Amino acid sequence: MYKHKYKNRKTEVNGIVFHSLKEARRYQELLLLEKAGAIQDLKLQEKFVLIPSQRGKDGKVIERECSYIADFCYKENGEYIVEDTKGFRTKDYIIKRKLMLKIYGIRIKEL
Known about the structure:
- The protein is α+β, with helices and mostly antiparallel strands.
- It has a domain at 40-110.
- 26% of the residues lie in helices and 38% in strands.
- The strands form three sheets. The chain has a four-stranded mixed β-sheet with strand order 3-6-7-8. Strands 1-2 form a two-stranded antiparallel ribbon.
- Strand 4 (54-55) and strand 5 (61-63) form a beta hairpin.
- The mean pLDDT is 92.
């Protein structure tokens, strides 16, 4: 049997595959909050470019872009919320979290 690196288990809800049971459960909670009107404009897997791709003089990409993909984005009381359901904070994630704050002024809500 294959073990995942961070012991997460892919879970499907409403035809959407989530990286973990925790993320799938949070999605179900957010759907209920949206139906109740507590949050609006729920989006999944929203991409934020942190560092654009770098091109050489010939136009070829020499460095790919660095981006952060949020688990969930929504509006709550007029405030834009970016949310991530982390079981383990990797070094890459911590750097991207800091870049999100620096570039977009968004502090990621971690669950």
